[in-house]
Amino acid sequence: MRLGTGPLVACLVLVSFASMLVAIPAGTWWSTAALSLGSGIAAVSLMAMAAVLGARWKWLEPVFGGLDRIYETHKWLGVWALVFALVHFVFKAGNAEWQTAAIVTLPGPATRLVRQLSLVALGLIVLLALNRNIPYRVWRWWHKLSGPLFLVVVAHWLSFKSPIALPSAPGLWLAVLSALAVVAATYKLLLYPMLSQHAEYRLQSVSGNGGAVHLQLAPVGRKIPFVPGQFAFLSFRREGLREPHPFTIASAATDDGSIAFMVRALGDYTARLVKEAAPGMTAEVYAPFGRFQRARDGRAEIWIAGGVGVTPFLAWLQEADGAPFDRVTFFHFFTPGRELPEAVDLQALAGQRGVELVEISTGPGASGFRSRFAAIVAEAGPARVRISSCGPKGLLRQVRSLMRETGVPDDCLRHELFEFR
What we know:
Elements: H1 5-23, H2 32-53, H3 61-64, H4 67-90, H5 108-130, H6 136-143, H7 146-159, H8 169-195, E1 198-208, E2 212-219, E3 231-236, E4 245-248, E5 259-264, H9 268-276, E6 282-289, E7 300-306, H10 311-317, E8 328-333, H11 346-353, E9 356-360, H12 367-380, E10 385-390, H13 393-406, E11 413-415
Parallel strand pairs: 7-8, 7-10, 8-9, 10-11
Antiparallel strand pairs: 1-2, 1-6, 2-5, 3-4, 3-6
Helix pairs in contact: 1-2, 2-4, 2-7, 2-8, 4-5, 5-7, 7-8
């Protein structure tokens, strides 16, 4: 059982409003003041939990089903925090029947300034998270302000006059979440490079075709254990490439500890890496993350990859002690002119494993894809197939549509969440 975004948001909001109701007279529960106050508590709670999820604590991965799911939830917590913050600021969080006091007293002008800055801070954080047009190198630095900006939000709830006392239910709720958020932000911003699992690697070989490269790295000292389907954050010791960036591992574990990645120029960071990658460069590899691992339940398997989404399947094909491959059909969608780097011989890998490889250059609407998919489902049975998909959102929508047409249950599909912001 995995925790999803919806249940987590609902839980945080419900606890926020329930704790508030304990602190105010029952006669004011249905007032706009109560709506405003509860929304403010919910906004701070959601933002605090977003900070906790942003710390990349590995113990959280099993709870959500992987770091990609954690980051998806992290983003939507910020969006909902902004929604509740807007409700809080539209209505006045005050009522004549309430006994109010500030937990921390600030000068009047400072209190008003903090109140205004808290909304601006939250809006800025969400804008940065949702705007994919911001270059990655700019986005990374601005996103680091989330921690300090959260302190502004905390200063707001501590300094404005409200019926929330620190020992009260809502006060303790906010205090605990805020403390966790501060610890998480401190860890991520200051301690992560020292305490997280990482190791130094040297780039051994580079194979490219202009728009993509295959990178083979070897450990300088200790090696990092991983399983096929997981991903890592790479930080190259080169100007402009130092910020850790996530890439799926394109190889299985080997005795010498080498590790491979395939990178396609899809943004400013990846375009620069494709252009400048050269043997001899060193990098810090932070890993492993993710839970996109091959199932071993004996079902007929359908692998579906689009573009650079082929990467985890490359790792699966190279796993020496993997499950049998005789019931695997691999649909590889690619764009003509954007073939894989020379070092990646997909046909040879599939042939060695006995995997049926179906390469498609005309998109998921191709009749060959749809008919072969339907034939596999009809032969194995709709509930006896295991579908693994990695690629753009448009491809995933087409896969889900085809599953509905052929009667395949939703729980037969496993997929990666491609975009981290």
